[in-house]
Design brief:
Length: 287
């Protein structure tokens, strides 16, 4: 009798069913592992960006890189009053890239969910020229951008560079309760159902229904949080009154203008007045 070779149709179907079952069990676990790896990579990127700020602060009396202090009023490098009109997130990141403290790739989250956010591949680092009073790429075509409704070259929100928060915390304060950098979030830290659920930021590390993000505090530690008011966040208190602070809203401010945490993206805005005494209105964007 000839020995039978190969599988019967039933045996083949059984094997295929087992493989399909195993795939069904393993794929969700693999997807979860990949998402966790991207979240960890994002936390590492935020950590490196903040370390870049810390390194740059050694050249300016422990102040973090501030566009208006880098490119001051006038044309003499390092001399003159701060030019507040250029203190945007876009110029901040551009100055750091031009100073070669980190690369454009580091500023885009591995889990980025918006089609408007892309690496600044056209940014011209060669535009940097202190003798020419140029400290970042300022051309309309290739400059670093932070407009979430148009073109944005970063996934990360940073502290708004004005008010009391800037003078107290935009420096090497090592404050473990003050957030300076994070995955961006929902406008005004809103939990309004329509506004919250329609935000693209939920899809970066969370799900369709929940925001999850990495937050970097001023002592360089990173926390993964699911709330806009994490326990680690600094609280505003005055005369015994405590007000809850949130990550993405200018909350009730009992400590003077700009005393609370407010993480946002700002591009070039409008300014009125003389250099050094500008009243600046930054252009903020959300998605």
């Amino acid at each position: 009798m000839r020995k039978r070779k190969g599988f019967t149709l039933i045996e083949l179907l059984v094997v295929m069913a087992i493989i399909a079952l195993l795939l069904g069990l393993l794929l969700p676990a693999l997807a979860k592992a990949r998402a966790t790896a991207r979240q960890v990579k994002s936390a590492t990127q935020l950590n490196q960006i903040h370390k870049g700020f810390l390194i740059m602060s050694t050249n300016d009396n422990d102040y973090f890189p501030t566009p208006g202090r880098i490119n001051r009023c006038g044309t003499t490098p390092g001399k003159g009053p701060e030019d507040n009109s250029v203190n945007s997130s876009a110029n901040l990141y551009g100055a750091c890239i031009s100073g070669e403290y980190f690369t454009p790739q580091l500023l885009v989250d591995p889990s980025e969910a918006s089609g408007n956010v892309a690496i600044a591949s056209t940014y011209d680092i060669e535009r940097y020229s202190p003798p020419g009073d140029v400290y970042w790429d300022d051309s309309d075509f290739s400059r670093f951008k932070c407009d979430l409704q148009g073109i944005c070259n970063t996934s990360y929100a940073t502290m708004l560079l004005n008010g009391n928060r800037k003078s107290r915390q935009w420096k090497k304060s090592l404050d473990s309760k003050f957030a300076v950098l994070s995955n961006r979030g929902v406008e005004d830290s809103s939990y309004d159902e329509q506004e919250y659920l329609s935000s693209k930021t939920l899809l970066i590390h969370g799900s369709r229904k929940e925001w999850i993000g990495n937050v970097c505090y001023n002592d360089n530690h990173i926390e993964l949080t699911r709330t806009f008011a994490p326990d680690a966040l600094a609280q505003i208190s005055s005369n015994g009154i405590v007000v809850e602070d949130t990550l993405f809203a200018e909350d009730v401010d009992l400590d003077g203008e700009g005393g609370d945490v407010f993480l946002v993206m700002s591009d070039t805005g409008s300014a009125t007045g003389n250099c050094g005494d500008y009243i600046w209105e930054p252009s903020l964007s959300w998605d």
